[in-house]
């Protein structure tokens, strides 16, 4: 029998190991081939130099804090994505997290399958190509998903986190806590950039009961990277996303006002920050939830660690009343966060937040 909460291989949701197919096929299997309009148009290493890179050095000082608020506010308004350096998370922890994640993906397939995502319900665990059973066209990636916060969720899930590599659970918990502190700091800066109290967004999304999900993406070398994506284009439905990537390019963002895709340059020791739908809605569309995707290449594998900070499912969301006025009326209706995706799926809008437009 499988351990509690772990799916036996016979009921797994892993359609095929992408790592295995990468080693066996010289042509891309049809189930990974995207339609012409969904294929990448910019190379994985054609880096955009315009995406803001913001230093958080001096964030606790009266001298530097106004600069940081201004720079992040401008980046949220013009891009919806930016990079941060001098963020206070040690290079040692970032390195250990990468090593442990790579160690998991390097395990034999039968070991990874012990942690397969269950069909239906919240997508937690290991999957390949997709964590959904109804996907006709798959992404060129393997993935592992954990629920890490609030603490009540971690206490429930901790014992079903992988035991290999040896330090996996301990390192993941440490990383989760450090990223949570960073997110709290960033949400405070974003709140102030909107003219709101420092703790406004943190409180709006549930305070200490806000939810955190950590996703590991492994993108193998691809025989025909021009025909597929590592991860299809989307916006994140939550609050804010913190991405740690290795030195291989692949993350791309859509610059809507210029109608073009740009590739985010990997910067050693940096985190990529992108806004989710809830910030766009809370800011009444002053800030943008950026559309993004991941492309792959034929020469190198790529690894990324993604932390999603999401509202508690009972949080009441919508435009912040404090920023509305006669000249800035609400563009979106209010809702409970647990209803957000069902509302969006029912309306079948291309961008989820358009389903809430008044």
What's the short story on this structure?
This protein is of the alpha+beta class and 358 residues long. 26% of the residues lie in helices and 20% in strands.
Please give a handful of descriptors for the protein shown.
358 residues, 9 helices, iron, single chain, five-stranded mixed β-sheet, eight-stranded mixed β-sheet, globular, oxidoreductase activity, 26% helix, 15 strands, disordered N terminus, alpha+beta, 20% strand, Jelly Rolls
Write structural notes for this entry:
With 358 residues, this protein is an alpha+beta fold. It has a single domain, classed as Sandwich (Jelly Rolls), CATH 2.60.120. 26% of the residues lie in helices and 20% in strands. The protein has 9 helices and 15 strands. It has helices at residues 18-24, 65-78, 91-105, 109-112, 151-157, 168-193, 200-204, 277-282, 340-347; strands at residues 47-48, 53-55, 81-85, 125-128, 142-149, 211-219, 231-234, 240-245, 251-255, 260-264, 271-275, 292-294, 302-310, 316-317, 335-336. The chain has an 8-stranded mixed beta sheet with strand order 2-3-11-8-13-6-5-4. The chain has a 5-stranded mixed beta sheet with strand order 1-10-9-12-7, with no helix packed on it. It has a two-stranded antiparallel sheet with strand order 14-15. β2 (53-55), α2 and β3 form a beta-alpha-beta unit. α2 (65-78) crosses α6 (168-193) and α3 (91-105) crosses α6. The N and C termini lie far apart (51 Å). 43% of the residues are buried.
């Amino acid at each position: 029998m499988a351990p509690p909460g772990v799916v036996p291989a016979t009921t797994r949701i892993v359609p095929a190991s992408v790592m295995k197919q990468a080693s066996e096929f010289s042509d891309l299997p049809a189930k990974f081939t995207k339609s012409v309009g969904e294929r990448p148009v910019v190379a994985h290493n054609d880096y955009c130099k315009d995406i803001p890179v913001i230093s958080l050095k001096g964030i606790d000082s009266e001298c530097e804090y106004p600069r940081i608020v201004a720079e992040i506010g401008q980046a949220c308004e013009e891009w919806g994505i930016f990079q941060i350096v001098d963020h206070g998370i040690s290079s040692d922890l970032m390195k250990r997290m990468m090593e442990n994640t790579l160690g998991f993906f390097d395990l034999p397939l039968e070991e990874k399958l012990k942690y397969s995502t269950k069909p239906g319900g919240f997508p937690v665990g290991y999957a390949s190509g997709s964590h959904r059973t109804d996907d006709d066209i798959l992404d060129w990636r393997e993935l592992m998903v954990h629920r890490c916060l609030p603490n009540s969720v971690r206490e429930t899930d901790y014992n079903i986190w992988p035991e290999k590599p040896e330090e996996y659970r301990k390192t993941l918990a440490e990383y989760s806590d450090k990223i949570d502190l960073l997110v709290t700091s960033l949400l405070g800066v974003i709140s102030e950039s909107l003219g709101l109290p420092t703790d406004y967004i943190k409180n709006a999304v549930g305070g200490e009961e806000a939810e955190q999900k950590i996703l590991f993406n492994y993108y193998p070398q691809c025989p025909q990277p021009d025909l597929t994506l590592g991860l299809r284009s989307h916006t994140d439905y939550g609050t804010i996303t913190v991405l740690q990537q290795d030195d291989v390019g692949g993350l791309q963002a859509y610059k809507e006002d210029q109608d073009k895709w740009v590739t985010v340059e990997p910067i050693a020791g940096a985190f990529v920050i992108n806004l989710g739908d809830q910030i766009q809605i809370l800011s009444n569309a002053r800030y943008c939830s950026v559309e993004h995707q991941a492309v792959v290449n034929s020469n190198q594998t790529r690894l990324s660690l993604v932390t999603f900070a999401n509202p508690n499912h009972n949080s009441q969301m919508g435009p912040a009343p404090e920023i509305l006025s006669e000249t800035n009326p609400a563009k979106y209706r209010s809702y409970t966060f647990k209803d957000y995706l069902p509302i969006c799926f029912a309306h079948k809008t291309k961008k989820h937040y358009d389903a809430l437009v008044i």
